[in-house]
Backbone:
């Protein structure tokens, strides 16, 4: 009789202990879910400047944080980002990219994006009014940006400070370049500072010398739309090799 009572007490104690352990586990699991679904997304999203300072551009926080300037109304890009550059948190933030689409803008001037950091700079399709980009337009971003996509068709590459070559060579870590406006002649000075290039999409009429000779990491060159009719003998020599990946 006493043995049976002892067994019942042990069983009851075991059940109580098991209940407590399971309860603690469930509480801990619940707290973990709270962290994952509430706290972690907050940590992962970046910092956005004040909407009124950025208008008509907007900062978007999804899986990455980026800025989009997609508007039909005229606005002063340089003025907006000069103001935002006074915000230390905005300057410290590493934005994934900036997308600019505005048919009213004729020129992107010097220091247009202030001191903000963007991994990619996207000047999108539909930018029919753009005619000039200052060679120092992205001078601050050029320290770290790896992608420059300029999908505007009518940019004039004139003498300094609106030179295509000076603009591209201002970038130090550029890996991917898309440039839809016509380049009359692609020359060797093109590859001065873009040795890390992996992919190029260009519109050219002629190639002089070996503009890709220092690009040992290049995997794809696409010569798009242009009336390419003059190509030098060593145009596609990369280092000591001649690559066969040109479209």
Residues:
């Amino acid at each position: 009789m006493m043995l049976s009572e002892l067994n019942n007490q042990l069983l009851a104690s075991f059940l109580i202990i098991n209940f407590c352990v399971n309860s603690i586990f469930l509480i801990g699991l619940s707290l973990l879910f709270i962290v994952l679904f509430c706290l972690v997304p907050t940590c992962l999203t970046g910092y956005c400047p004040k909407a009124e300072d950025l208008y008509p551009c907007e900062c978007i926080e999804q899986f990455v944080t980026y800025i989009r300037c997609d508007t039909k109304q005229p606005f002063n890009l340089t003025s907006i980002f000069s103001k935002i550059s006074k915000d230390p948190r905005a300057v410290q933030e590493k934005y994934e990219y900036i997308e600019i689409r505005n048919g009213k803008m004729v020129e992107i001037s010097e220091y247009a994006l202030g001191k903000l950091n963007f991994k990619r700079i996207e000047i999108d399709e539909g930018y029919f009014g753009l005619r000039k980009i200052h060679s120092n337009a992205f001078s601050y971003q050029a320290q770290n940006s790896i992608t420059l996509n300029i999908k505007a068709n009518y940019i004039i590459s004139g003498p300094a400070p609106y030179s295509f070559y000076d603009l591209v060579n201002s970038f130090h870590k550029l890996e991917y370049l898309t440039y839809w406006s016509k380049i009359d002649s692609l020359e060797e000075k093109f590859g001065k500072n873009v040795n890390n290039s992996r992919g190029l999409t260009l519109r050219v009429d002629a190639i002089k010398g070996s503009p890709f000779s220092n690009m040992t990491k290049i995997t794809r060159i696409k010569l798009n739309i242009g009336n390419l009719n003059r190509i030098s003998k060593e145009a596609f020599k990369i280092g000591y090799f001649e690559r066969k990946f040109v479209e």
Remarks:
- DSSP finds five helices and 14 strands in the chain.
- Residues 35-43, 240-246 have pLDDT under 50 and may be disordered.
- Residues 34-183 form one domain.
